[in-house]
Structures are given as structure tokens and as C-alpha cells.
Amino acid sequence: MGRKPEATMKHERRQQTTEPNGAATESALVSHASHVPLVDVVDPDYWPRAVALRVVIALTYCALILLGVLPMEFAWWLVSSVGLLVYACAMFGICIRWPDKTWIHRDVSPFSDVFVVTLAIIAVAQPDFPIFVGYYLIIMSLSTFHSTKYVVAFAVFAVANMWAGIAIADSLGRGEMNVQLSVVASIMAIFTAMNCDVISTSTRKLREMVLEASMTDPLTGLQNRRRFREILDAHNTPTRPLAVIMYDVDNFKQINETRGHVHADTVLIAIGEELRKCFRDADAVARYGGDELIVLAHVDSTADAMMMGQRSLDQVRTATGISLSAGVAVYPITTESLDDAVNCADQALGQAKRDGKARVLLSPSLAQAA
Question: Are 326 and 305 in contact (CB under 8 A)?
């Protein structure tokens, strides 16, 4: 993927400005998914499948014991297998009961998993059986969500647990410590962590680039219609009124025909950049299609929304020499949904174009309510 559009880069460098008493609420408009791990955005079913796999692993472990592949005394078999099954089912129950608590599986469960594998080492008490491979699997899964330092530090923690498990088994007289095998396994765990992190970091960056491309307009660097749709769906019950302002570039067809498409593209880029400057970082600014742009912003009243729309028209015209027309609607003051607000803003925009362009109008229903 190439360099980010200049409009996006400048937007990212700007300091956030907010209105009094609105910062906490407004930030949700554009940062709704910014703190969510990428896997939760791309694949929301990832964690249920991962936790279900833990149950399958526990059942496989019990089956290996019953088949005699993992020899151990009955008491140790009962404690380790029942304990593992209870733990796996408990994690699955947490995932079903609190599906949004993914941090439990991402940050807490790896430590529990290491403890379970350590108990398995003590239960089997035979260094020739590579139970410690379980540590490697946990380390590989961690590399998807955490930094290099975290993964390597966790690998050291896993190695320490492995040595502790072997030492306990040896002290109980259940198995002789194999120092050579333990050293090799320890080194392998560290290098596994480093290698998995390299691969995972590259994959994670690629997925982030794909996700960004899917939500960004490639020409202007603004959010695209798909991303704007997601923001609308996430804010159907706002704590403050939301203004929908739809813009259209006046005489854009004439610009296309007389100056060419390349110049018309530069006009859209300049307008998008200036329009982004007119609003707070917390507000959503998107290219809706063609020469139409749309904004979702927190306001206090319809008058506030109109003032916001007029100010943006003036600023864009001063900076670019190009006039815009705009239509405004506010939810939930006079519309029943954000979709209705978008439709009302579109109608008001059409009326502004018919009335002579270069102006901002409230939707008919809002005008009557005001």
C-alpha cells in the first residue's frame, strides 16, 4: 500500500478540539473501533471458536490418557483431566455469558493455560513426552495480539513454569529431570516466540492496511460510505443530538468538463481537506459518493447545526474558491432515526441547489420545528 493521502496525514497530526462537556461523548463517533483488537473487528467469531478449541484440546488430552499414550497414575489422571475439562468449560461459559470480555481470553487465560500445562508436566512426569509443546502453542497465539517484548517476556515466564514443573516432579520422585532436554526446550520456546512475533507482526500490519483501505476513500483520505454507515449504526441512541450535514460541490460537472478529471480530483481533495479542518477530530467526515460529502457531528440544537454548516461553507470557499451547497438535519430532535436524518439532509441539499446554490438549508421538517 502506498503513502497515505496528504489529507489523512494532516488530519492525524492535528490536535483534537472539543466543546465543553462533550469530549467524552463525541470521541465515540470516530474512535468506536479504534481500541478494539483487529481480530474482533475483522472476525467477531474468532474468540468463540478459539475457546471452543480449548474444550476440544481438553477432550483430546483425556482421550490420550485413556488410550495409554500419556501414561500416568489414576489419581494424577483424575486430577489433571477433570481439572482441565472444568477449566476449559469455564472459559467457554465466560465467552458465551460475556462475549464482550475478550480481554479475559486475550490477556488472562494464557497465564491459566501455562499453569495447566505445568500441571500436565507434573502429572505425566516423563521428560520424553513433549508436553511442553503446549507452551509453544500458547506463545504462538499470543503473538497475534501483543508486542514483541510482551511475547518474549511471556516465553520466559512459560520456560520458568516448565522448569518448576520438572523440578517438582523430580522432587516428588515421579520422574528424573532431563537437564539437556529442558535446556533445548527452553531455547526453542524463546526462538519460537521471536519467530512467531516476526510473522505475526507482518501479518497484523497487512491486515491493518487492508482494514484501513476498506474504510477510507482513496482519493480524499476521508472516511468512505461504508465506514460512515458503520458509524451511523453504532450511534442510534446518542446522548446528545447528532447533526447530519450533506454537501455537494457547486458546478462540479462544469469543472469536470472544462478543466478535466485530474483537476476535478484535485478540487475534491482540497475540499475534503478543508472540510476536515472545519470539524473536530471526534466528528465523522466522509465522502458519500461522487462530489457529495457528509458529516456526522454532535450539536446542541438545530441553530448550532446550521451555524456549523454555514461556517464550513465559508471556510471552504475562502480556502479553495469553490462554493458548496449543504443540507442539514438533526437527530433525534425532529427525525426518528439517523437514516431519516440522512434522507432529510439530502432533500434539503437538493432544495439548496434549486434555490441558487452556495447556501445551507434545514430540511423542511426541521424548518417547521424550529
Answer: no
